[in-house]
User: Fold this.
Amino acid sequence: MLLESKNAVIYGGGGSVGGAVARAFAREGAKVFLAGRTLATLDKVAVEIRAAGGAAETAQVDALDEKAVDKHADAVVEKTGSIDVSFNAIFNGDVQGTPLIEMPFEGFARPIANAMRNQFLTTRAVARHMLERRSGVILTIASGAREPFPTLGGTIVAWGVIETICRQWASELGPQGIRVAWLRTAGLPESIPDTGDAVADLGTGFGAGMTRDEIIAEMREATMLKRLPSLADVGNVAAFMASDQARTMTATVANITCGQVVD
Assistant:
């Protein structure tokens, strides 16, 4: 198993991406600690992991709360002795669907500010403990989109912030044996709400007047492989990146956009 005997913290572990990563980590032998604001969703993922033979614990943690983040990381280390891997899958509260000229500054800035704060706080909290052992892997996720697109507000700026923060942390933590990297993914079909025959509402300019199937088909057509990544794909790649098989990779991205974005 890729992550046997590892202790992994997944921030946003109750969401679709966080849950997929948690399941993959547990399947590969890690004990997972799911952190997030909503215990009900965290517990649901934990129950599924335990039913499959894995080990999972949950804790209510607001990743924007500095004291709460530090306290949780301290508690995990006190119980297990180490944090070997962390994955940040937190939703940043994007405000989309409105042209910038009509958007209040607060709406534009919210995802950027949230991304900066939760990425910094969670990374710092786990890194402090990883430094003691001079080893560890810190991962997060960013979208495949890197080019401007109308009505996305501050979302693409926030994604750029996430990648830049990762590079900065990697430069400082690398000499201490800690790797920092991120996943870049294309649209995930499982994350698009199934509204039947109704028009799918993604909260963005993209997809207006289209059904869910039409949206998925258009996203698929934009890739070189003519298919889209699944949540399972995200989990599998995250497990590989967290493992010693990827020990030479830091300050870099794992591109799982199926060729939608070329690096």
Remarks:
- The beta strands are 7-11, 31-36, 55-60, 85-88, 136-143, 178-185, 252-256.
